[in-house]
Amino acid sequence: MSTTAAPPKKDTYTPLELFSTDRLLDSDERDIATTVRKFVETRLRPNVEDWFESATLPKELAKEFGDLGVLGMHLQGYGCAGTNAVSYGLACMELEAGDSGFRSFVSVQGSLSMFSIYRYGSEEQKQEWLPRLAAGEAIGCFGLTEPDFGSNPAGMRTRARRSGAGENADWVLNGTKMWITNGNLADVATVWAQTDEGIRGFLVPTDTPGFTANAIHKKLSLRASVTSELVLDNVRLPASAQLPEAVGLGAPLSCLNEARFGIVFGALGAARDSLETAIAYTQSREVFDRPLSSFQLTQEKLANMTLELGKGMLLAIHLGRMKDAEGARPEQISLGKLNNVREALAIARECRTLLGGSGITLEYSPLRHANNLESVLTYEGTSEMHMLSIGRALTGQAAFR
Ligand SMILES: Cc1cc2nc3c(=O)[nH]c(=O)nc-3n(C[C@H](O)[C@H](O)[C@H](O)COP(=O)(O)OP(=O)(O)OC[C@H]3O[C@@H](n4cnc5c(N)ncnc54)[C@H](O)[C@@H]3O)c2cc1C
Prior knowledge:
Elements: H1 15-19, H2 27-54, H3 61-68, E1 76-77, E2 80-81, H4 85-98, H5 100-120, H6 123-135, E3 140-143, E4 159-162, E5 171-181, E6 188-195, E7 198-205, E8 211-215, E9 227-237, H7 250-284, E10 286-287, E11 290-291, H8 296-324, H9 330-354, H10 366-378, H11 383-395
Parallel strand pairs: 3-6
Antiparallel strand pairs: 1-2, 4-5, 5-9, 6-7, 8-9, 10-11
Helix pairs in contact: 2-4, 4-5, 4-7, 5-6, 5-7, 7-8, 7-9, 7-10, 8-9, 9-10, 9-11
The structure holds flavin-adenine dinucleotide (FAD).
């Protein structure tokens, strides 16, 4: 933790400088954030408008994310960087300052695909997939949601049946998964299915006969991200494709909890970028013969948004420190996901108002971020599901059904 003196007084500060949240980070954490921020500024930001408009995410970015060291960076061994949770969160924040699509790719690869293998896979599965996934030489996806079962994945209809007697018999999978990030890019899919013993996880190489990924088009949100339907039509897998340690719905939910933690920080990146864009714009835009930034209504908006951004950052760092020490419970991660995504979305929309007509174009980031955050509000548990999870923790009563 930093023990340096207070930073020198300046004429103006960025919103997070005002909170001095950097003083809660150590030098390794600050270095990681700076490295990822530079990559975002030089490699991603110059292209993001085109990728968003054309609804593409170039596959070669996977290798570049691997070289940057952000894929599965919070996991130990198997080519992973082994950083603490706060560093992973900061990397997510910097990536999402570029676009939620970049953070989504890294979240799904590291926290859903890789974490499911790391936590629940056999040693052979780990050796086969984790080093390649960490390097970005292979891409993973995570199929839990189905067309009729999103908030309630326990009802999933995807079915895995043994094709014969005994533990060594092949598995045959049938079903459909929906809204799967990286689905059309993936080399391996972690697929969750009902079996006679309950929900189990399977690693499905995407070139297995019977596996199809269909890209979902006409999205208004997360356009610089690939989202797919996965169809499993008599997909035959060896017994060794099952994740041996994954027993029941708790397994996929624990993976989601990992990814949600990244969102707690990530969403703030989109908010920070929106706010910094709005501050710069209001300083250069003249209305009624004065800079827009000099009006009290504008400063009220900027002050309120700065407060929410800074409070969200303090919450994110607090959850990260807990995760690195004794661990954070799922309902505590829910507090962070619910608050920080909700406030980030409100900030991005408010920033858009400050940009007037200019705010509706891709030239400025706030509306792109706001559109993306609509997806972030929905995936990894909708805001309503997180409210119910917090409500259950407060009252002891589950109101899900
Ligand atoms: C861009 C994108 C990427 C995604 N990536 C992935 C991925 O990689 N892997 C994956 O498995 N899934 C992924 N998802 C799916 C995502 O997790 C689901 O969309 C989400 O869980 C919600 O499910 P649903 O869309 O079926 O909505 P529903 O469950 O049908 O919910 C609709 C509305 O009803 C509300 N609701 C539901 N139940 C209750 C209740 N009990 N009380 C009150 N309100 C309720 C919800 O909060 C929501 O507002 C992705 C989704 C999107 C949009």
